[in-house]
Amino acid sequence: MRYIFVLFILLFSSIDSKACDICGCGNGGSFFGILPNSHVRLLGLKYKYKSFNSHLGSKTLSAQEDFQSVELWGRAYPFKNTQVLYFVPYNFNSQTRLGDNKSSSINGLGDATVLVQYNLLNTFMDTTRIRTWEHNLLVGTGLKAPVGKFDYDQNSLEEVANPNFQLGTGSWDIPLNITYTIKHKNNGINVNSTYKINGKNNNDYKFANRINTSISAFKTLALGSYTLLPMLGVYGEYAGQDRQSGIANGFTGGGFVAANAGLDIYLNKYTLGINTQLPIAQNLVNGELSFKKSFNFQLTRMF
Known about the structure:
Low-confidence stretches: 1-21
Number of domains: 1
Oligomer: single chain
Distance between the termini: 45 Å
CATH superfamily: monomeric porin ompg
Structural class: mainly beta
């Protein structure tokens, strides 16, 4: 299926009747959303939840998978026109087989990411003239470090034998990002795209390179001492097939497009944000996996 927007992901180890292998993914791309005030430092906590149904063609292996994380994140400005974003998640992954209610779970630190962005264009900071249209363009790259544990047994009867169910990928990866915002009076559009180049881990497993893109329309509304920023848009993810020892894993890959809606509330130096995604179209693992929904909640302080 061809999608209007670039998509991505999710993916799974070789098929084995002894353990689950077609599963959702907790090691996908990050959705940044619309970051507040492009010139100030940030520190915040973000809660993420996403849910999948897997093994749709099997009555015995059919399962629900839930991926949750609490993420410490922030933004710093070490140099002029340069911002550094950092993300450190703590993950909670669970799977419940629908046939016999058997549950498996894992939790712990996930992979940490640092993203350095350079501000190529920012008319929001230019106070020398009044513009009808404001623009902000950021480009960047970074590094994802294998902080999260990656240790799975494909033949285990007790655990979910799938690399995507692990707390981390076990590999050093490089994200490439571009973010563009255009605003006219109180209305604007934000476009954010990240392409992640994945390395090979010590298990000789290489997750496919991945891309995620979001396009969101937003509006700023002043209500007394509060500022509201509702947003509505489209989010997509896509990845090819993973490789084990250089051999393509046919039970991985695919993508989805989701409707994306959210609301940020600003009060003084604090921001409260909520965001949800519901699928519009998808083709994950040739129809064996279904993305159900995702939800994000964050509290951020500006400095």
